[in-house]
Amino acid sequence: MFRTSLVTILLSATAMLFGISANAGIVTVSSFGAAGDYVTIAQALGAALDGDTILVGPGDYNENISVSHEVTILGAGFDQTSTQSFTFYQGATGSTLEGFHCETGGNAINLKAASDSISIRRCRLVSTYMAWDILAREGGSTGMHLAVEDCIFINTTSTADAMALYNDSCMVRNCLFAHVNPSSSSGKAFNGYIHDLSVINCTFLSYYSLFGITGNNSLLFLNNIVYDWTTSPNWGSYPIGAVFDYNASSGDIPPGTNGLLLTSNPFVDYDESGIYIRDVSDLHLAPGSDCIDAGHPSLLDLDDSRSDMGCYGGTHPLIDTGAPAYPFTIQLDIDPSVIPVGDQLNVETTGRIGPRY
Question: For 228-234, which contacts have Cβ atoms below 8 Å and span 24 or more sequence positions?
Fold first, then answer.
């Protein structure tokens, strides 16, 4: 956890932990206004150069952020760092966003037409107005690439989609999609003319319809759990030749091969009447669940066993706090500061040390 009274970064230690050279730019943001830091994310972006990393401490920044050059933006985790939205422009190609809670009346993530190779990781994303999708690509792009990993998408309105894409090649892995106001067939998990979509080890809760994909494109849907349909299972429209394999669903056996029909609640704690309750529902698989060790045999969990289905399966399971994948330190206390060779050195670090990819 962060020590909020002091957010001074020791650059040499941070560079070592990132595995980057000391010449790489690191810009820090603190909502507490400590000396040497910026107090808004927009200010930090104005100071950052292409290739820089922006470390954002805990707090609610209440900003709509425009990203116009290639940067890595790391929050302290979606349980600690929040803002409204991020928009990525052409110059932001190659950027990474990680460890934020974004909640807004518009698009939480907006990808402009020419932005490419964007990675969204370990974020909790919510759109609160029915006319806006959670993550949306502006039309007109061709051949763009997007990676979305370890994120939580929460639909709070009946008509908003979780991801509305256009001509993208997209990989979605270990994500949770929850529709907490599912009263319309127009609110889907994936919608639009998607060039190539891979969805692996994800969990979907309380959807009316899952897909609204147009065009003769490709879809791989593997190791996923779809539970608590609003009506009878409705997979929606998806490409001819789509590959569905090793998925589980309530209500009906999933399309494709090796599908599993769920006849009971597979989760530790999930109330179907209350749908998904953020920070309360526990979607880890309950002991004895049929979804344990039921994924594709060639995909393994962290313990090298066969992959579980759902967002906690596979080699990179969902991190409930959104803690960033790259460890960083915001304070090093060394006692004593000078010691003879052979004496004991006590080092206390303050910061958030998260698992690496």
Answer: 228/270, 228/272, 228/275, 230/179, 230/182, 230/183, 230/206, 234/185, 234/208, 234/209, 234/210
Percent of the chain with pLDDT over 90: 55
8 A C-beta contact, residue 26 and residue 51: no
Q: Which residues contact 197 (CB under 8 A, 6 or more apart)?
A: 165, 168, 169, 170, 172, 190, 213, 217, 218, 219, 220
Contact 48, 38 (CB under 8 A): no
Helix, strand, coil proportions of the chain in percent (round to 5)?
A: 5, 35, 60
Residue 140 has pLDDT above 80, yes or no: no
Smallest Cα–Cα separation from 188: which of 266, 246, 135, 261? Answer: 135
Between residues 23 and 124, the one the model is more confident about: 124
**Torsion-angle region of 303 (φ positive above 0: left; ψ -120 to 50: alpha; else: beta):** alpha
* Spatial CA neighbour of 7 closest among 52, 42, 44: 44
- How high is the pLDDT of residue 182? 66
At residue 337, the pLDDT reads: 64
The CA distances from residue 65 to 149, 170, 253, 305, in Å, are: 21, 23, 42, 41
With bands split at pLDDT 50, 70 and 90, how would you rate the model's confidence at 10? very low
Report the predicted TM-score, pTM, of the whole model to 2 decimal places: 0.86
Mean pLDDT of the residues in the chain:
84
Give me the numbers of helices (H) and strands (E) for the chain, helices first please. Answer: 2, 32
Q: By CB neighbour count within 10 A (0-12 exposed, 13-18 middle, 19+ buried), where does 32 fall?
A: middle
Q: pLDDT digits over 244-263, tens only?
A: 999 999 999 999 999 999 99
Q: What secondary structure letter does DSSP report for 90?
A: G
332, 324 Cβ separation under 8 angstroms: no
Residue 139 CB coordination number (10 Å): 12
Place of tokens 């529902």: 281
| AA identity, residue 18 | F
Q: 200 with 173: CB under 8 angstroms?
A: yes
CATH class, domain 11-352, is mainly beta
CB 121 within 8 Å of CB 97: yes
Q: Bigger pLDDT: 156 or 216?
A: 156
Residue 228 Cα distances to 53, 190, 249, 273, 284, angstroms: 40, 18, 8, 9, 15
